[in-house]
From TrEMBL:
Protein's name according to its UniProt entry: SUI1 domain-containing protein
Highest classification ranks of the organism: Eukaryota, Metazoa, Chordata, Tunicata, Appendicularia
Top-level taxonomic group: Eukaryota
InterPro entries registered for this protein in UniProt: DENR/SUI1_TIF (IPR050318), DENR_C (IPR046447), SUI1 (IPR001950), SUI1_dom_sf (IPR036877)
Chain intervals for the UniProt region annotation (Disordered): 1-21, 87-112
Keyword Protein biosynthesis: yes
Pfam families: SUI1
Family the entry assigns: Belongs to the DENR family.
One of the GO biological process terms: translation reinitiation
Protein species of origin: Oikopleura dioica
PROSITE patterns assigned to the protein according to its UniProt record, in alphabetical order: SUI1 (PS50296)
Every SUI1 domain range: 116-184
Keyword Protein biosynthesis carried by entry: yes
């Protein structure tokens, strides 16, 4: 096969492209490119997106420390090969990982179940938002749970894993409690859900 790519039709499948039996350094740029492509175990390439940032592995090392840790923990939990990526720590220290291995990330300590508190913060005379805290201690994905609330109540929602909090646009205290029991009653006992009523606005 010619080293010159044709403008007619799609490029050949990697399995069909035959490379010459010569050292890599002696290959043409096109042959080197196909050599790298054929080294990929699966084709087309399956891109894995990690963490709340939802970015591919090769970009994880450029994120903030908290987001890197979250992505590496997900990779370790789901048995994803991170290759030679490194988990950098503040202060210039690095936890290096030899290429081909899996990141040695310590698993988070399981949080003790907390009371799930549902309250309301008034914004003006007619507007209010509903705050829900404590769900993360039951190992619930706050981002996905917030989407469930938003879809059920047709409103905007946001989540903050650091503060273990979900904010729902609107006054839905009773509805939220009912939905938690309906969706997550197998994990969260009813006596662990508390209606705290009106809350003071932060700040």
């Amino acid at each position: 096969m010619s080293d010159v790519e044709s403008d007619e039709g799609p490029p050949p499948h990697p399995a069909l492209y035959e490379l010459p039996d010569i050292p890599f350094d002696e290959m043409s740029p096109l042959q080197k490119r196909w050599h790298k492509i054929k080294a990929i175990p699966e084709f087309p390439v399956k891109v894995v997106y990690l963490g709340d940032c939802e970015m591919p592995l090769e970009y994880v090392e450029y994120l903030s420390e908290d987001m890197r840790k979250q992505a590496f923990e997900q990779a370790a939990t789901e048995d994803i090969d991170i290759g030679g990526l490194e988990l950098k720590e503040s202060g210039g220290k690095k936890k290096s990982q030899s290429r081909g291995g899996r990141g040695a990330v310590k698993a988070k300590k399981k949080a003790e179940p907390q009371k799930v508190k549902v309250g309301r913060v008034s914004r003006g005379k007619k507007k209010a938002v509903t705050h829900v805290t404590g769900l993360h201690s039951y190992e619930l994905d706050l981002k996905k749970t917030a989407k469930i609330f938003g879809s059920k109540f047709a409103c905007g929602t946001s989540s903050n894993e650091k503060n273990d909090e979900i904010v729902i646009q609107g006054d839905f205290i009773d509805e939220v409690i009912d939905l938690i029991l309906d969706k997550f009653g197998d994990k969260i006992p009813e006596n662990m859900i508390v209606d705290i009523g009106d809350m003071k606005k932060a700040g």
